[in-house]
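Budget justification aside, the reviewers requested a transparent look at the raw inputs and outputs of the sequence design task funded under Objective 1. We therefore reproduce one unedited record. The lines immediately below are the structure tokens for a 449-residue chain.
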């Protein structure tokens, strides 16, 4: 057994910042146009954003109890391994390894490139003259930012946390500016909320709602972020639950506000299918110059979420390797920077590979389905925790919050599968491939180097 050498250096402020940064990312700046293309009704879209926020709070309350009782590195991997069995924990870690963090890093990087190319259209046009297609330009930019932020967080959690704090504060400031000046402009119309068509009747309408909620929950994903850093948080029994609740509450308020701004500034027909929806909204409200300025600002704001994912993911692979259920070299702690260095580099390679394959919407659906599976089991494990450890911290809402989370989570997965069976099946297959991988690692008395 490799001795854990991660150090407890994070207080409430940076831990909450990591939750906020992890949540506010590509989802809120890219999915609303895709949602409206499916729903064709802005009012229903707003209701679903509220529902998604309630689900996220239910999850945060549950994970807060688990994190306070088991304040180690790894989040779901740690909880499921201890409360169920090592296979359950491994499968969650395996999914996180392939999908949970590398894919959102890729999505955030692709979101950055979409906004950056919208703000600086001359760059892709110039490269196109040299034979480099617009899509290739976006991928080159996305790969570049992944490599840069991997290098930043390779240098240590304290250094990386400082960068993360600055980026998160800048991102929240940007959203506040968007909301204040956007609504103050008076150039939009609240009549846009009453436009749009009714949902398809019957199961077809519910399938659309299920897929839409899955995309929304991707935007809210990160409400559990600080549990992955439990081994590096000071006074985790107090700080960890508070960071989850404070971070999730802040994000819900910001998400509802910014979606109202999108609808206020853009007609439903104009918004449908647009990924860089923030730039479009500000362009409508203030003109082309504002479109360029805010597209550029949002592009750089996406650095914050990308940065947070790069911090969190490697801690899961590190915990798996430390337990002998992954490559031994992934558990290596850098002697100078005190971070799981090989784990960080491996994640970078996978994220780059994902950027170079698939479309944004395909990655979003595949990722959303895969990430929706294990939180259901994790929240259910709160029941096991209370029975196994009666002296653990108790948070309010039990068992209603757990019931709501589990019920809505199962419904979202079922409806999303019916709507997008191909991407959902690939997600299930990704999880199942972890079973033979687990057996291979477990069978070896010495983990593979």
């Amino acid at each position: 057994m490799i001795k854990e050498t991660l150090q407890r250096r994070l207080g409430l402020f940076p831990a909450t910042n990591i939750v906020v940064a992890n949540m506010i990312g590509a989802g809120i700046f890219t999915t609303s146009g895709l949602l409206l293309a499916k729903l064709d009704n802005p009012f229903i879209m707003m209701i679903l954003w509220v529902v998604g926020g309630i689900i996220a709070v239910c999850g945060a309350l549950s994970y807060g109890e688990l994190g306070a009782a088991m304040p180690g590195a790894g989040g779901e991997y740690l909880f499921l391994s201890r409360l169920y069995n090592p296979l359950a924990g491994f499968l969650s870690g395996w999914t996180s390894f392939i999908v949970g963090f590398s894919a959102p890093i890729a999505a955030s990087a692709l979101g950055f490139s979409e906004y950056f190319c919208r703000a600086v259209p001359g760059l892709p046009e110039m490269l196109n003259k040299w034979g480099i297609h617009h899509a290739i330009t976006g991928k080159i930019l996305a790969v570049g930012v992944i490599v840069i932020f991997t290098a930043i967080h390779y240098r240590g959690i304290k250094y990386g946390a400082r960068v993360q704090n600055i980026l998160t504060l800048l991102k929240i400031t940007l959203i506040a500016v968007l909301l204040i000046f956007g609504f103050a402009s008076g150039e939009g119309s609240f009549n846009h909320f009453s436009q749009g068509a009714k949902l398809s009747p019957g199961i077809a309408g519910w399938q659309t709602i299920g897929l839409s909620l899955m995309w929304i929950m991707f935007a809210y994903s990160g409400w559990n972020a600080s549990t992955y850093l439990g081994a590096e948080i000071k006074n985790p029994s107090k700080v960890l639950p508070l960071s989850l609740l404070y971070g999730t509450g802040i994000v819900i308020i910001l998400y509802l506000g910014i979606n109202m701004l999108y609808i206020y500034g853009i007609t439903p027909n104009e918004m449908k299918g647009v990924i860089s929806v923030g730039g479009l909204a500000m362009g409508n409200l203030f003109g082309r110059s504002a479109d360029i300025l805010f597209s550029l600002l949002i592009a750089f704001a996406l650095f914050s979420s990308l940065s947070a994912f790069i911090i969190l993911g490697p801690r899961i692979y590190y915990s798996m390797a430390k337990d002998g259920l992954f490559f031994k070299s992934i558990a290596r702690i850098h002697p100078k920077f005190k971070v799981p260095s090989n784990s960080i580099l491996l994640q970078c390679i996978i994220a780059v590979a994902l950027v170079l394959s698939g479309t944004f919407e395909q990655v979003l659906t595949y990722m959303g389905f895969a990430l929706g599976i294990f939180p259901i089991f994790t929240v259910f494990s709160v029941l096991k925790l209370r029975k196994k450890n009666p002296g653990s911290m108790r948070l309010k809402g039990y068992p209603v919050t757990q019931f709501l989370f589990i019920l809505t989570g199962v419904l979202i997965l079922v409806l999303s599968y019916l709507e997008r069976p191909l991407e959902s099946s690939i997600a299930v297959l990704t999880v199942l491939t972890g079973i033979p991988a687990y057996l291979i690692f477990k069978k070896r008395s010495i983990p593979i180097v």
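The longest helix spans residues 288-322. Residues 33 and 277 are 6 Å apart (CA to CA). Computational costs for records of this kind are itemized in the attached budget.
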